[in-house]
Structures are given as C-alpha cells and as structure tokens.
Amino acid sequence: MSDLESFRAETREWLEANCPPEMREPVRDEGDVYWGGRNAKFKNDAQKAWFEACREKGYTVPEWPKEYGGAGLSAAEGKALRQEMARIGARPPLSSFGIWMLGPALLHFGTEGQKTKFLNEIANGEIRWCQGYSEPGSGSDLVSMQTFGEDKGDHWIVNGQKIWTSYADEADWIFCLVRTDKQNKYQGITFMLFDMAGTGVSTKPIKLISGNSPFCETFMDDVKVPKSYGDDIPAYVGEINRGWDVAKYLLGHEREMISGAGGGDRTAAIGAAMKRNAGELDPVLRAELAQFDVDALSYAAMGEKFLDELKVGKGHPAQPNMMKYVGTELNKRRHELMMAAGGSRALEWESEETSGGKPSRNWLRTKANSIEGGTSEVMLNVISKRILDLPGA
Amino acid sequence: MPLYYDEDQAMLAESAQQFMAEEGAIAKQLRHWRDRECKDGFGHDLWKQFAEMGFTGMLVGEDDGGLGMGNVEAGIVLEQIGRNLTPSPFLSSSVLAATALKHGSDDVRGRWLPGLIEGEKVYSVAIDEGAKHRPETIACKAEKSGNGFRLSGKKDYVVYGASSEMIVVAARTSGSDSDADGITLFAVPQDANGMSHDSVRLVDSSMASHITFDGVELDGDAVIGEVDGGREVLNAMLMAGRVGAAAEGVGVAQGAMEMTVDYLKQRKQFGKLIGEFQALQHRAAHLYSEVEIARAVTIKAAQLLDGGSEKADLMASVAKAKVAKAAGLAVKEGVQMHGGIGMTDEYDIGLYMKRDRALQEFLGDQYYHAGRVAEMSGY
Questions:
Q1: B-contacting residues of A 290-309, CB under 8 Å?
Q2: Does B100 map to a domain?
Q3: Closest approach of chain B CAs to the CA of A331, in angstroms?
Q4: Nearest by CB: B3 against A281, A301, A387
C-alpha cells in the first residue's frame, strides 16, 4: 500500500470513529455552521465533539503547518481528506474568514510572530475575524477607499466606514484596509489587524432582500490601533502602505472560495432531486435542468482540474477569476431552476414546511454571489486583460 | 489521478501540437484536398505520417503491436486535429474501429489491426440509420446464412466510408428494432458483394456515405465479439468515440477562439483596436471560460473511461454536450467578431464553423446527450 493509500485508510477509520452521525447531515441553517470566536456557542454536543476532535488532530486547517495549529498535510493528503469527508458528508468542523482569507495572507506575508499568534488562534477557533474592504463609495473600484489612519508615532487613529463586512456584529477582530498615505493611490494602503472590542468601533447589520442580515456596516470613529502587538507581531500584514498587494493576493483566495471550486452542492447536478420534489417536470423545464446539469457537472470537473493545478503551480494565475465568474453565475441559475421546480411552495416566506422560507431566501441570497468579491463584470475585465491580453482592458 | 497531463502526456501533447501545426495545417490539408475535390477528403500520405508518429495504433494493445495508450492520449491527438481542422480518419479508424476491434477474436485482430497500425488502411463505423444519431434502435439486419450471415439494411453518416478498407457495422441478429440485446458487430470488408456507397460531401468538406447492404454475405469470421452480445462492444465504441469527438471539438473551439482573439488585437474601427471595446472583451472572456470548462470535462471523461469507471458513460455524454455548447459558441462568436471578413471563404474562421457543425452531429448532438444525462440521472 502506498503512503497515500494508507493515509486514506487511516483517515477513513479516524473519521468513522470521530465524526458523529449528526455532523454527517447536510448543513440546514446558520446554526449548523460553527464559526468559533470569543462568543461562540455550540449548537449541540455533536458539533462540539466534532470540532474538538478536529482541533486536536489539526483538521480545522489540515494543510497548515503543525506549529500553527494545522496537521501539516501534503496537497495530496489534503485532497484525500476532503474526498473522505465528502464521501460521508462530513460538515466542516470550523468555518471562518480567518481560515479562508487572513490565514492564507499570513502564511504568505506574515512574520513568524504573527503566524504563531494569529494562525493558532484561528485554527483553535478562538478568534473570529471579519474583513473590512468595501466602503460605501468604493465597491468594484475598491482602491478608491478612504478610511484613513493618521500616523501618531506608535499608533494610528483610524476613522471611516466599511460596508458589506460579513458577520462584523459577531466578529472579534477585523482585517481592514486603511489608507495611510493620501497621495499614493495603490501604495498608500495598509492591511491592518485590530480588535473590534476597542473603543470607537461599531457595527450595524444590513437587512437584505432575503430578510437576513449576514452583512454589516462597520464604523470606525477615532479608533486607536497600536502598530505592534509585541515582539515580531506588527499590527499590519506585509509592509506599511503596501496593503494593496496583500488585498490583491487575498482577492484571489476569496474568488476561489466563492467560486465553490472545492466542490459540494454548488457543483452538483440537480435534475433528479427536482423531479423527486416536483413529481412530473414540464418538458421544457426538464430540458433546462438537463442543460444545467451538463454545465454543473462540467464545472465540477473544471473545479477539480483547477484545484489539482493550483497544488502544483500549473494553471494561469488569473484562473480564480474565471472560476468565480462561472461558479457564481451557475449558482444563480441553479436557484432560479429550483424556484421554478418548487412552484408555489417555494414562495413561502415563513412556513415550517420550508424551514422558514429557505428556498426563496436562498434564491435571493444567490443574487449577491456575482456581486460580492468582485462582480461578474469585473471578473470578465480581469480575464480579458490578464488571460486574453486584450488591448486597453 | 490529477486532472492534468502527466509528463508523458505533456510530451505527447507537445509533439502532437508541433506535428499537426506543420503537417496538418489548414492550407496544407483541408484546403488542399478540398480545392482539388478529392474523393477521399483526406490525404493518405498524412495518414502514413500518423503511423510514423505512432498515432494510428495508439489505442491498440501492445500485444497486438499497438502502443496500449488510453483515451486521454487519443484526446490529445484529437484536440490538435480539431485545432488545425486536419481532415483525418483518426477518430473513425484509430478510436472507434480500434475500440471495437479490441473485442475481436485473435483472427479478427490479426486480420485488421496491422494495416491500421501501419497507416496502410482506413476503417470506419456504421451506426446511424437516419439523419439523427439513435443507436438505441438498430434495424439493419444480419440473418444466419450457412456458416455466416446475410446483411441487409441501410446506414448513414459513415464518415470516409467509401475510402475505408473495412467498416464496423452494428446490425441486428435477433429481437426487435429497439431491443438492447440482439446486436452483433461485423467487420465488413470494402469488397463485400452487395454493399453500395452513396458518397456525399458534407458541409465541412469531409466525405460520408449512405450505405446500402443488399444481402451482403459475411462469413462467421466477420463477427466482432459475441453474436447477439454486441451492445456492450457498441457502447464501449460509442463512449470512446464521443469522448474523442469531444476532444476534437475542444480543439475546434480553441482554434476558433485563438483566431478570434488575435483578430480583436489587430482590427481597428473608430480609431481603436476592436479588442478595446468592453462589449467584445466580455464576450471573449465568457467564451474563454466555456472553452476551459469544456476541456476539463473532456479530460475528466477520458480519465474515467480509461479507469473503467461506471461514471464514464454519463460523463462522456456530459462532455459531448458541453463541448458542443462551447465549440458552437466559439465558432459563432468567431464569425460575428470577424465581421464581414468572417463570411468570406478566403478566411479560415468559417471553416471552423463548418467543421463544428459536422462534429456536433457526429455520435449525437448536444440535445441528444443532454437528454441522455437526464435519463441516466433518473429524470
């Protein structure tokens, strides 16, 4: 048996022993997702047991080095673990913007001190992070952002407003783009890290068309951000005034995440499930579902290829933009079809049968997929410029 | 298995790309033979060169003198064929017929494989009976006659049929037209008495036959695989052919897209390169995405097929349908973005549109395969 095969066998056994049956059910609502953080509560014992087993094993962040709370798995082992988890339908033990976004940035740009402190906190689910990027006047044109940090020697005084800060009202710390040089558009932004419990930070949830409020406005009013949190732990990632490099790097990760490249529901075929729910399908709807399934199964193959290539450094560096564009457009189409197949039942906004209007709320939620993290139009701009090398793009 | 080419496959891709760009180029092959109204529709010399490159017998087992490669490798060659619009019997001979012959007896393999590997012979397959691909229904009959069979019926869209030394024919040996069982595959030699070709030129300048079998006498040696048990061989052949046609389609899409993106960088209107217009940029970027995805699912289907996966049949249909959508988009956007010049015979982009059309239809179009995906998925 090869090393990988024996790893897979061990993993299978470990999952069998440690992943409770409740944690193999599909995620039904927000409470089923464990985000960690200072105020985190487990929904039930199974969620707690599953999280703790993974934390001990380093499986909240399996491919991070052991000294930062991971399991130090190779790319191939990581893939095998994901496949084995997918096989039994295991939920992610811990979800967080720390894992998806800040972590990768720190692994790439962080100092040893930052990695030791922040990555372990993330891996152990101790600190829940949120991302402060967009501002009311700076959406697609993010670099025009104006939240300003005035240099006061050993600290900054930060003033401004962020918007679309996911779960800011439940987060502990924020990684935030702050302008530190007004004369320099691209090289005048610093990627700051600070505690939201400090004076001057307030959040206000934004109610969306889905009726839910996963996003907030975040206000910074004379927030004092120290430049350092101790030896080798600067309060910024990368260099002062070079935060745009970090942001760009991270946008790539965000696009991978939103694109659903990792597989799961977003890449699955839906026709058969729709027939089970709807009974007979109208022939034209059936045809549309078949066309959708062709696209979804093809995109799943693309996602697999994309991840395989990413692991060995093949593939175009701008490919995440393509994945994000196609994945989000596909997901919107998926929910349009699910609404069509669901009929009037899917319109119910609060009924028990729909678990509080899940079909319609989820459908509305997907409309943001192609806006957040770079709109579809911006993605197409990037593909034009960086992959196709079209003039003036 | 990672979803990209391993080292050997990457080397093959490089040599296939170079070879096809030099020897299989549009001016040298497609236009050359078309403008001479060649009755074969392809060049025999190039077929010999395919043999020298090791392409002709790549799917044939090593024990039979082939290279024992898989459908991923065949797809690599086919993508370059598509990209250069190279007229070649590779798909029908080296993929479809070769896959069927793998199931043949020692005698059958010994009789037909060496000529294929050497590039001396060209083979084809006769499946369709009518203008649409409906292999579920096979009416063409082979009745027991002495020690052999007597073949009667009609077949359509037999690619390069009139130039083929042998044609693999799917015929009914028992049951009724739409039965899954009762099919037998026959290797019918070119000189069989009672076989007549109505050979026609298609929109893409390739040649295809309507074949009539009028009591063609075949001896028992002509049978490939089991009598009445041919459905399995037919399915294996169809899967390989569909994945192969998808790979060729990816090449057609890629070639059309490359030409078009180049053109966007050269053509000026309103004092600007037309590639500067966002209206065209976004469409080109969308096209790029579709072509990338089509390539990914084609490689995936080929890997599943080579690995003997149960999912191969489903994914072969997914790939064939997806590629049809992507390549269809590539050639349509190609002609539109070229503007008036795209409508001229002198310019190559229209040739891509024509080849795509013929390839779409070969072994089932996107509607057939999307329908198949629905059926196999249970709705």
A1: 290-291, 293-295, 297-299, 301-302, 304-306, 308-309
A2: yes
A3: 16
A4: A301
Residue B241 lies in a domain: yes
* Tens of each residue's pLDDT in chain B, 379 residues: 899 999 999 999 999 999 999 999 999 999 999 999 999 999 999 999 999 999 999 999 999 999 999 999 999 999 999 999 999 999 999 999 999 999 999 999 999 999 999 999 999 999 999 999 999 999 999 999 999 999 999 999 999 999 999 999 999 999 999 999 999 999 999 999 999 999 999 999 999 999 999 999 999 999 999 999 999 999 999 999 999 999 999 999 999 999 999 999 999 999 999 999 999 999 999 999 999 999 999 999 999 999 999 999 999 999 999 999 999 999 999 999 999 999 999 999 999 999 999 999 999 999 999 999 999 999 9
Query: Which chain B residues have a beta carbon less than 8 Å from that of A284?
Result: none
Query: Burial of A187 by CB count in 10 Å (0-12 exposed, 13-18 middle, 19+ buried)?
Result: middle
Residues B160 and B106 in one domain: no
Is ipTM strictly over 0.90?
yes
The distance from CA B373 to its chain's CA centroid, rounded to whole angstroms, is 20
Contacts A–B by Cβ distance under 8 A:
141
| Helix B71-84 with B278-306: angle, nearest 10 deg | 150
Rounded-to-integer distance, Cα B291 and Cα A106, Å = 34
Q: How far apart are CA B249 and CA B369, in angstroms?
A: 15
Which chain B residue is nearest to residue A292, measuring alpha carbons?
A: B370
- In chain B, what residues touch A293 (CB-CB under 8 Å)? 318, 370, 373-374, 377
B259 and B367 in a common domain: yes
- Contact: B297, A302; criterion CB under 8 Å: yes
Q: Which two tokens stand for residue A244?
A: 């745009």
The answer as to whether B215 is a domain residue is: yes
Rounded distance between C-alpha atoms, residue A74 and residue A182, angstroms: 43
Residue B351: give its domain's CATH number.
1.20.140.10
Interface residue A4 vs chain B (CB under 8 A) = no
Same-domain status, B99 and B76: yes
CA distance B151 to chain A (A): 38
A176 vs B: CB within 8 A = no
CATH number at residue B211: 2.40.110.10
How far apart CA A333 and CA A330 sit, in angstroms, is 5
By Cβ distance, the residue of A274, A305, A390 closest to B4 is A305
Domain count, chain B: 3
Helix (H, G, I), strand (E, B) or coil at B158: strand
Among partner residues A271, A290, A384, which is closest to B281 by beta-carbon distance? A384
* B315 CB within 8 Å of a chain A CB: yes
Q: Which residues of A92-122 are buried (b: 16+ CB within 10 A; e: fewer)?
A: bbbbbbbbbbbbbbbbebbeeebbbbbbbbb
What single string gives the DSSP state of each residue in B185-197? EEEEETT-TTEEE
**Does B223 lie in the same domain as B238?**
no
The answer to whether residues B369 and B250 belong to one domain is yes
* Residue-range definition of the domain harbouring residue B139: 125-228
Same structural domain for residues B222 and B236? no
Q: Do you know the residue count of chain B?
A: 379
Q: Which CATH number goes with the domain that contains B114?
A: 1.10.540.10
CB within 8 Å: A290 and B373: yes
- Cβ contact B300–A286 (<8 Å): no
Are residues B162 and B260 both part of a single domain? no
Q: Is residue B2 part of a domain?
A: no
Burial category of A230 from C-beta neighbours within 10 Å (exposed 0-12, middle 13-18, buried 19 and up): exposed
Touching check for A333 and chain B: CB below 8 Å? no
Domains of chain A: 3-95 (1.10.540), 128-242 (2.40.110.10), 259-387 (1.20.140.10)
Tell me the pTM: 0.90
Which of B177, B206, B228 represents a domain boundary (last residue)?
B228
Query: Distance (Å) from the C-alpha of residue A83 to the closest C-alpha of chain B?
Result: 13
Subunit contact A271:B374, Cβ cutoff 8 A: yes
Examine the domain organization and report whether B137 and B74 are in the same domain: no
Nearest CA in chain A to B301: A301
Q: At which of B64, B95, B121 does a domain end?
A: B121
